[in-house]
UniProtKB/TrEMBL annotation:
Residues 59-106 are annotated as: Disordered. It comes from Haloterrigena alkaliphila. InterPro entries: CAP_dom, CAP_sf. PANTHER family: SCP DOMAIN-CONTAINING PROTEIN. The keyword Transmembrane helix applies. The chain crosses the membrane at residues 28-50. Residues 115-248 form the SCP domain. This is CAP domain-containing protein.
């Protein structure tokens, strides 16, 4: 995309063309992926950041641009944060400062876990039990993706989600993974609305956006709601890593116990 400015009738036509290009690019689906013992899912590109492609997001017409959300409420605690077994590559807490609040990874993880269980309850499913070890494995994978600049289930060492988990522990006989990539405090495409954008400035808003990304993708929604050939999960863990530039690598990992 390119900056938008012109005048008179000819420019109005040009502006319309540019808006069409903007909307076409914004229709690219946000990055959400699923894989597990059933080897399901495909990788798609990450959400477009308007500023990165020369567009001033304040000039793009979206509802409530410039308004700030209320700070996050207190999330329901997901569960044990210091399990006996953790991934040695787990980076621990990460955070990014916005004008509204400090968005920190533990709070985002708590909110994601709660919101996933809310979606499950809406479909008559039992809540997933929080698993700190599984969350640690997911968090380590997010950190690895940020450090080695890739976005995929299979890392450059050819390790898949189940491989990464069994390197740490081995009590899951079925294992699944949803991953997502987005940004905090930068305007990106709004999940489920190709013509809308959103700026995540709170942990609660970011968590809602991440869950909406997954729920707006058929394969990832099936993983959450145990539909199709997806196993009936017993446990789950959410791992979030927030990079210094505001990039957010998130995973929701699922476990069917032995």
């Amino acid at each position: 995309m390119c900056p938008r400015s012109r005048s008179n009738a000819a420019s109005e036509s040009g502006d319309g063309d540019e808006r069409a290009v903007i909307r076409s690019l914004l229709r690219i689906v946000v990055a959400v992926v699923l894989i597990g013992v059933l080897a399901l899912g495909t990788t798609v590109v990450a959400p477009i950041v308007l500023e990165d492609i020369g567009i001033d997001s304040e000039d793009f017409e979206t509802p409530n641009v410039g308004s700030q959300p209320a700070p996050s409420s207190d999330p329901p605690p997901a569960g044990e944060r210091n399990p006996a077994v953790t991934d040695p590559d787990d980076p621990g807490e990460s955070a990014y400062e916005t004008d509204v609040e400090t968005v920190d990874s533990p709070t985002v993880e708590d909110f994601v876990h709660a919101k996933v269980n809310e979606r499950r309850a809406d479909h008559g499913l039992e809540p997933l039990e929080w698993d700190g070890t599984i969350a640690s494995v997911g968090r380590a994978h997010g950190y690895d993706m940020a450090q080695r600049d890739y976005f995929a289930h299979v890392n450059p060492d050819d390790e898949a989600p189940m491989d990464r988990f069994t390197d740490v522990d081995n009590y899951c006989r079925g294992y699944g993974e949803n991953i997502a990539l987005t940004w905090v405090d930068r305007r990106v495409e709004q999940p489920g609305d190709a013509d809308g954008t959103v700026r995540y400035q709170t942990a609660e808003g970011l968590a809602e956006g991440l869950v909406n990304q997954w729920m707006n993708s058929t394969a990832h929604r099936r993983a959450i709601l145990e539909q199709g050939e997806t196993p009936d999960w017993d446990r789950g863990g959410v791992g979030v890593y927030i990079d210094d530039d505001g990039a957010v690598y998130a995973s929701h990992n699922f476990c069917l116990e032995r």
